[in-house]
Amino acid sequence: MASTIVVYGGSGALGRAIVSTFIKNKWNVTSVDFFANQDATTNILLEKGDSLEEQGKRVVGGVSGHVDAIVCVAGGWAGGNAASNDFFASSELMWKQSVHSSLVAAHLASKSLKSGGLLTLTGAYPAQNGTPFMIGYGMAKAAVHQLVASLAGPDSGIPSDAKVNAILPVTLDTPMNRSGMPGADFSSWTPCSEVAETIFAWATNAIPVTSGKLVEIVTKDSKTSYTEK
């Protein structure tokens, strides 16, 4: 029987890379997003007007049986400090994109993750410290970091032997990032395909995972390091 994974945010740049990697390796892949990923085995489509509870019911109800891995790479980026005109709106958007999706992924893990399975969420390297020029983004990602620590503790609601961690990239090499920062040093950006291959190695136990850890992803001169914190 084929192994199974749910990719939350499966139509984004990193999500597509993850879906492609697991499909290539003969896994059954469920993509969760607002738009379908035609490469996935199945799709769960979200509605933009969904509340957190409605989104949770839609996702949990759309997954049948138990899964080997759940990866949440949904999210986005918005800048702005406390004086920004759109401070409230952008902060609320960051919270919904990063925290709500991570909470739904965690709840799905409590219902559907197999014993010993993998739950990977997405934090951010800069959110380990203050982010005064992107407060809403940093606050939301820091909340994901805290969620990882909580889920790895006893009585968190997910399988006691499950492995939960978070990736903390600096900058991913995506078409959107290249368009927005055409003069940047791309040799310091992390390819999405490389992150996808690492997550596959975690899911198959080819690379050990320490539950509760945040994994810093730093690329320099086109070479990437992964450091658990």
TrEMBL record:
The keyword Phosphoprotein does not apply. One of its GO terms (biological process) is L-phenylalanine catabolic process. GO terms for cellular component: cytoplasm. Keywords: NADP, Oxidoreductase, Tetrahydrobiopterin biosynthesis. It is an enzyme of class 1 (oxidoreductase). Pfam families: adh_short. Its EC number is 1.5.1.34. It comes from the Eukaryota. PROSITE patterns: ADH_SHORT. GO terms for molecular function: 6,7-dihydropteridine reductase activity; NADH binding; NADPH binding. SUPFAM superfamilies: NAD(P)-binding Rossmann-fold domains. Belongs to the short-chain dehydrogenases/reductases (SDR) family. Homodimer. This is Dihydropteridine reductase. It comes from Dissophora globulifera.
